[in-house]
Amino acid sequence: MKTYSPAQYAALSEKRAKQFEIKASDAVAEMAVTAGTTIATETPVDTGRARANWHSGATDNDEPIFKGEDKTGSVSIQRIVKAANAKKPRQSIFLYNNLPYIGRLNAGSSDQAPAGFVEKAIAKARKKLMRRKFV
């Protein structure tokens, strides 16, 4: 087994800590993309406004309501991926939808999706994250 001087050990420890920080940041971004993609595609769709209004960013609730429609959720997914790619280490990432009726949809007001589709998407992303290796 190799022995290290205190200075070498400190440098190695700092290098490992940086590597861990980067991997943890990447994992948070991956979780946001997984959860956001699932949420966007499982949001009940009528006109496509609810699916089109999922956002992601370093702060919550900072985007205006998107006036367009997107029945596939691809507009939201593109925004979520872009925000995840721009995320910096130690920075939080939020997923949100500013439509006033999104809470009712998640509560089960639509026959197209079960109640709690947001929570189920987050649980799916968390499960995927738990399989990830950090070191």
Throw out a few tags for this protein.
single chain; 135 residues; mainly alpha; 2 strands; 54% helix; 6% strand; elongated
Helix and strand layout, with pairings?
Layout (H helix, E strand, L loop, with lengths): L5 H37 L6 H4 L1 E4 L16 H13 L7 E4 L4 H5 L10 H14 L5
Antiparallel strand pairs: 1-2
Helix proportion range: 40-55%
Q: Give the percentage of residues in beta strands.
A: 5-15%
Spatial arrangement of strands, main beta sheet: 1-2
Total strand count, please?
A: 2
End-to-end C-alpha gap? 20 Å
Number of contiguous helices: 5
Shape: elongated
Could you explain the architecture of this structure?
The chain has 135 residues and is mainly alpha-helical. The protein has one domain. It has 5 helices and 2 strands, in the order ααβαβαα. A two-stranded antiparallel sheet has the order 1-2. The radius of gyration is 19 Å and the shape is elongated. The mean pLDDT is 90.
How would you concisely characterize the structure shown here?
With 135 residues, the protein is mainly alpha-helical.
